[in-house]
Amino acid sequence: MKAGSNTVRATSATAAGGPNLDSLTVGESPSAADWSVSMVESTMARYSPSQIGGWSYPVGLYLYGQYLVYQRTHDARYLSYIKSYVDRFVDSGGNIGQSFNNLDSMQAGRLLTILHHETGQARYQKAAKKIRDRLGTYPRTSEGGFWHSTSDSRRSQLWADGVYMVNPFLVEYGKEFGDSTYTSNEATMQLAVYGGHLQVGSGLLKHAWDESRDASWSDPKTGLAPEHWCRAIGWYSMAIVNVLDAVPADHPRRAQLLTLLRNLAAGIEKYQDPATGRWFQVVDKGSRSDNWTETSCSSMFTFALSRAAQQGYADAHYAQVAQRGYQGVLQKISLGGDGRTNLTDISIGTNVGNYGYYIQRDRKTNDFHGLGAFLIMSEQLRANNSGRGEGK
Predict the structure, then answer these.
(1) Which of 90-94's residues contact partners 24+ apart within 8 Å by CB, and which partners?
(2) Percent of the chain, pLDDT > 90?
(3) In angstroms, how far is the first alpha carbon of the chain from the final one?
(4) Residue 14 or residue 162, greater confidence
(5) CA atoms within 13 Å, Cβ hemisphere of 384
(6) pLDDT, tens digit, for every residue of 148-182?
(7) Number of neighbouring beta carbons within 10 Å of residue 386
(8) Is the pLDDT reported for residue 392 higher than 50?
(9) What is the mean pLDDT of residues 43-51?
(10) In a 10 Å sphere around its CB, with 0-12 CB exposed, 13-18 middle and 19+ buried, how is residue 21 labelled?
């Protein structure tokens, strides 16, 4: 027990009616509770592996977060659940019925490398290699940036979201299958190209850029989308940290990525809501009365800043910024009457738009964008806090 931070409640009485101090319940503060385990247990209770959804990046994000909890707890049920989900799409010969014609469809590929690592089964390598091989013919901008999708409506477009959909998978694939020379070069180039176009003077990133300037949202001079949408920036922030964690310390693009990350960290800190510790749906316009703090991006920023400070990618003071973010996100999780977790104020999946479009997006409870980001944040902050003697 930690002095001053525990709740003690008498749960029985003596014959004289006073509290029986031999029978106590020790209640944890919200920051000490194991919300990761509670969330995984709640989600597994709500959905079987066959009911949780199709092959998609939100489910893939959530299950990657569940894997992080498995790595800490070693609860075999968590890994078995992931395997049962993936085996709906990958047969015994390693065939997977996906065309991988957009970056979003590649994110759940992280689960393929995880399952190969955990089981050694060759079918997961074969399925993962389909993504790796698809990138050889996948369309790119003139500088080599992957289009967000091969569809005509996404032609020549870079979306900040996309760097997370493919690059963490890439560097993990390279490590697992001995292909790190290619994957490190590709992933760092993608982050540099995207960051070079999307990042502006504040350090924040615009949601998207269109090389052709044909998109309705594209500025005719810059090609940029009009707003700083929080989750798009969150995807980029997590991706750049994941890639820096994986590539060699002497990689020639490392310094460039560190500059991008440090500028981004400064922008993220500047626009943190002082009242809640969270971040707004449109990051730089928190003063507008209709703007609202969004839970998934707040989790993503918290993870990225904590990890960047821990690894020395950014100044150590960002650990305190992350702690404020962590406490802010914890205000959005609670237990319902059924004993299961509820995580609120999560923006649904979102295209590129203007301010009004983002503000009017539905705010869901337990959307997988938020659940996955929460678990990634929670496991990072729990580990860091334990190292400092906080939490458990």
Answers:
(1) 90/123, 90/124, 90/127, 91/123, 92/123, 93/123, 93/126, 94/122, 94/123, 94/124, 94/125, 94/126, 94/127
(2) 89
(3) 10
(4) 162
(5) 24
(6) 999 999 999 999 999 999 999 999 999 999 999 99
(7) 11
(8) no
(9) 98
(10) exposed
Give the torsion sign (CA, 167, 277, 327, 384).
positive
Q: DSSP per residue over 124-183, as a string?
A: HHHHHHHHHHHTTTS-B-TTSPBPSBSSGGGTTEEEHHHHHHHHHHHHHHHHHHT-HHHH
Number of residues assigned to the chain: 392
The residues pairing with 158 across neighbouring beta strands, listed in sequence order, are 209
Q: What does the pLDDT read at residue 384?
A: 87
- Give the separation between CA 309 and CA 142, rounded to whole angstroms: 34
pLDDT of 206 strictly over 80: yes
Average pLDDT in the 244-262 region? Answer: 98
The letter for the amino acid at 160 is A
| Residue 388 pLDDT greater than 80, yes or no | no
pLDDT score of 1: 37
C-alpha closest to that of 230 among 285, 166, 149, 163: 285
Mean pLDDT across 101-111: 98
Give the distance, in angstroms, between the CA of residue 348 and the centroid of all CA atoms in the same chain.
14
Alpha helices in 214-360 (DSSP H): 230-246, 254-270, 295-311, 318-330, 355-359
Least confident of 2-16, 248-262, 335-349: 2-16
- Look up 161 and say whether it is catalytic: yes
Structure tokens at 329: 């996100």
Q: Give the angle 13-18-20 at the CA atoms, nearest 5°.
A: 45
Tokens 């066959």, residue? 50
Query: Active site residue: 34, 104, 152, 161, which one?
Result: 161
Residue 30's pLDDT is 52
| Exposed / middle / buried, residue 210 (Cβ in 10 Å: 0-12, 13-18, 19+) | buried
Separation of alpha carbons 2 and 390, rounded Å? 9
Closest CA to 9 of 28, 27, 36, 32: 27
- CA-based nearest residue to 56, from 118, 137, 121, 111: 111
By CB neighbour count within 10 A (0-12 exposed, 13-18 middle, 19+ buried), where does 294 fall? buried
